[in-house]
Amino acid sequence: MQQESAIREPLILGDKTYHQITEDVCAPVEGKANKYWFMVFSLSVMVALWGIGCILYTIGRGIGTWGLNTTVDWAWDITNFVWWVGIGHAGTLISAVLLLFRQKWRMAINRSAEAMTIFAVMMAALFPGIHMGRIWMAYWVFPIPNEFGSLWVNFNSPLLWDVFAISTYFSVSLVFWYIGLIPDFATIRDRAVKPVSKMAYSVLSFGWTGDAKAWIRFEEVSLVLAGLATPLVFSVHSIVSMDFATSVIPGWHTTIFPPYFVAGAIFSGFAMVMTLLLMVRKVLGLEGYITRKHAEYMNIVIVITGSMVGVAYLSELFISWYSGVEYEAYAFLNRATGPYWWAYWSMMTCNVITPQLFWFKKIRTNLTISFILSIFVNIGMWFERFVIIVTSIHRDYIPSNWSMFHPTFVDVGIFLGTIGIFFTLFLLFSRFFPVLALNELKSILKSSGDNYKKQH
Amino acid sequence: MSKAIYALYDDDEVMVEGAKAILSSNVRIKDVYSPFPIHGLENVLGIKWTRLAITSFLYGLTALTLALLGMWYFMIHDWPMNIGGKPNDYLLQNLPAFIPVTFEFTVLCAAHGMAITYLIRNRTLPGFKARNPHPRTTDDHFAIEISKDENSGVSDDEIRTILQGTNPVEIFEK
Question: Which of A104, A152, A382, B92 is the most exposed place for a label (fewest CB within 10 A)?
Answer without folding.
Answer: B92
